Structures are given as C-alpha cells and as structure tokens.
Amino acid sequence: MINKNLFFSFFLILFLNNCAQNPVSLLGPAYTLGTTGNAYQAGLSYTTNKAINEITGKTTQKNIREILEPNINDDELQKFLKARIIKTRKLLD
To answer: Residue 88 belongs to what domain range?
Structure first.
C-alpha cells in the first residue's frame, strides 16, 4: 500500500509540476466566490485579470507599481497622492 501511494505521489509530482500556475491564479476569484457567493463577480475578476495580463503582458500588480512610480511630469497633487498610497500600504503591511 505504501509503495502504491509513493508511486502515485511521484507520478503526480513528475507529470503535474507545471500545472501549479493556473490554480494559483484562481485563488482570488475562489476567495471572492466563497466569501460573497457571487459567481458573476468571481468570474469577472478572473476574466479581467487574464485580459489585463494578455493585453499588457504584465500582471495587475506590476501595472499598479508602474503607475505609482514617481514621474517627472507629475504635478504636486499626483506626487502627494502617490506618496500617501505608498505610505498607507507600508502601514497596512
């Protein structure tokens, strides 16, 4: 019995090791579905994340970081808001 379990585990690790990325991308929508029970919201969340990734070639997190980076053309209000967002994120972490 132990040999069968060991062989089956080895088989799964060997052949399914590249399948880890897709379920990880489903964690956010799965959490939304579990907490709110709204399948439409979870589906919309997953679809928009995939669309943004396909169009820009970057993840949503990378896009947000790029937006928050200081820019030479920013006016004072934009610089202030970006600094406040970064400070608030540090406090929340």
So the answer is: 65-93
